[in-house]
Specification:
The chain is mainly alpha-helical. The chain has helices spanning 2-15, 23-42, 51-82, 89-111, 118-141. Helix 1 packs antiparallel against helix 2, helix 2 (23-42) runs antiparallel to helix 3 (51-82) and helix 3 (51-82) crosses helix 4.
Amino acid sequence: MVITFTTVLLGLAALIYPLRRNVFYLLSSGMVIGAAWWLEQCCFTTSLFSFKTLLLFVVFHLVAVNFSTFVAYGVDKRAAQRGAWRVREADLHILEFIGGWMGAWVGQKFFHHKTAKKSFQNMYKLMIVMEFVAVYVILNYLNLI
């Protein structure tokens, strides 16, 4: 399971160039791989590409990427208050696109950050739509819908 998760996450980073330098994606990937390792050590093993492995990956990925996106909004808000280097908006949008839109929404509300900037909000909404379209296309391609 750890090998499968690592392969998928590194493959995503290889295919999507901005993920390679997104620290919060690396944090998310580390959490997913760590959870898989812990689960394998504890009590659960599956074959490399079974349906259970796919479901576990989706759950672990969504939890980790939403947590990482929430943290990214907190770090960006803190940097904005201090006048320090900020998290790039493109990095925030990439995290939203790969499944962290709910963590972004909670982060915006919790930290009162990026809520008034219309161009950011428009791109945020576009990322949500693009993610749902991508999921629909993938599920349609796999004949699951």
